[in-house]
Amino acid sequence: MSSNLSSAATPPASSGKPALMDRFLNGIEKAGNKLPDPAMLFVYGLVLIFALSTFLSFFSYDLIHPVTKEALTVKNLMTGDYLAEFLSTMVTTFMTFAPLGMVLVAMLGIGVAEQSGYINTSIKKILRITPAKILTPVLIAIGIFSHVASDAGYVLVIPIGGIIFYAAGRHPLAGIAAAFAGVSGGFSAAFVPSSIDPLLAGFTQSAAQIYDPNYVVNPLSNYFFTLCSSVLIVSLGWYVTEKIIEPRLGKLKLDDDVEEAPNMSTMTAKENRAFTFATLSMVAGLVLLAATSLPEGSSLRDASGSLSSYSAPLMQSIVPLIFLLFLVPGIVYGKLSGTFKSSKDVMGSLSKTLAGMSSYMVLAFFCALFLKAFADSNLGILLALSGAEVLQAMNLPGQATIVGIIFLTAMVNLLVGSASAKWALIGSIFVPMLMSLGISPELSQAAYRIGDSSSNIITPMLPYFPLVVVYCQRYIKDTGIGTVASMMMPFTLFFLVVWTIFLLGYWALGLPLGIQAPYTYPAM
């Protein structure tokens, strides 16, 4: 580990008891790291789901499934029919686990670019033009901006965050934490609209039409709020990273076999030339993409002509595009710099990349099985609807109800990871309920988005959470769920509390939530 890293990451010596926040986070880390290996945690969770589903299936519940409109029941998974189906679809469950293919395909392209030296040279260029003082906010802002490319930030921005911080002489886990906070904790902040906006608006509109069949929700009904939230999240993430996370991480020493941080102060003429041609190949790829996607009749648009909807071929091609946009420059750089002497070296870099992802593939296998069983049992729906029913029964004032929705969503998010699935379930209860209290569906949706984003970064139910653990293990092999959860907890606490206050203040000032987005129902 370089001397710069030691001096930057180690906090000044102090005497006396650790601060309250330190004791709290140390407790989380200690308890979390006593948990089994992350893969075994999903195995034990799978056993627990089967046992709970059997026990709870004998009871009846006075709840209606908001999607099927049928009485909610807990499915007993310990039946011959289900066990046969579970076993017969096990391979399919694993192979269709959405993050698996996305992560592996994207990482293949990024791996070639990284091992050729292209990414390191790119980082040298970035560090030269980015003042050290604003490296953290720039990284968080890039994480927020990555939402345009769906979930690409998880496989692109987060690992590069660790590399950039390490190269700058800072603790790499702090870079991973800052990037994770931007990509996932700031999921509902946005500099530009993304595909999540029309997705959530569609569920909000369906829920609103339960109460008012003619109600229409604009896909950009939260855009002004999420734009302002971007500035808030960058500021909060910057403060938390540098004032709380990095001082604590100074106590965590990197493994002895971690590669030395690359020299970021010099570049050879050969590297400069290789970088120029590699970057030109990437720019050429982007120009070609723009030329084929911008025309109105482009085959990359959906049936309505949109490029940004979930059904648009462009959005569905994001991961293959990332693969190609990094693979080609990586090969060009490797050939011109001498890193790649032949096609064998290129294939070797692909194999090495997949070898480094082997632990993630094991995690993904058991995570996929756990999530399938959890969804099939209806236990997540039961917990979400029960919490919503309690909140509804409390009949709180509008502002208190909005705060309740935010915190309930944050807690439900620890059990149900998908943002759209959660909103499809609890939105159909909250939106009509709040409309009856005079609160608009657009405001309810904004509240939901805060709660959903804030706790993304501490829940192992997030499909990409195990991947973040793997990123950290590149630098500290015994990193566990507790380490990552304790590292991200300050972000969650600050985001949840300050973002909630921000929404209440935003509401009190009457600032526009977005396009065609009233605060009240009916609009006043």
- The percent range for helix content is 55-70%
Query: In what range is the share of β-strand residues?
Result: under 5%
Summarize the biggest pleated sheet: none
Helical/strand content category: mainly alpha
Distance between the termini: 61 Å
Order of helices and strands: HHHHHHHHHHHHHHHHHHHHHHH
* CA-atom Rg in angstroms: 24 Å
Summed up, the helix count is 23
What spatial form do the alpha-carbon principal axes imply? globular
Q: Note poorly predicted spans.
A: 1-16
Mean pLDDT: 82
Total count of strands: 0
Pick out its properties.
524 residues; mainly alpha; disordered N terminus
Question: In words, what does this structure look like?
Answer:
- By secondary structure, this protein is mostly helical.
- The chain contains 23 helices and no strands.
- The protein is globular.
- Residues 1-16 have low confidence and may be disordered.
